[in-house]
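A favour between colleagues. Tell me how you read the following sequence-structure pair.

===
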Amino acid sequence: MIELTGFIALYIVMLTAFVGIEIISRVPVILHTPLMSGSNFVHGIVVVGAMVALGHAETTLGQVIGFIGVALGAGNAVGGYVVTERMLEMFKSSKGEKA
């Protein structure tokens, strides 16, 4: 098994952040909410990967980076579900209104 040192883990996090920013910046604004709600499963995979990296980290820097990855991935997944719930609430009709 390949062991990740703290600097390699930091390089991977920085590289993925850069790629993510480049991909998201090219998405039209009107598609952000549907894409976020449709890609919540990806955030779950990110959290699992960060947990694996955190479990195999041998240095303090690796553990810190792994913890940050777990926290950010979990926050992103929860935020995606919150946005999806708010988006679905927009399409519900209120009971007091007549159609």
About this structure: Residues 38-89 form one domain. The longest helix spans residues 60-90. The CA atoms of residues 12 and 56 lie 15 Å apart. The chain has a mean pLDDT of 75.
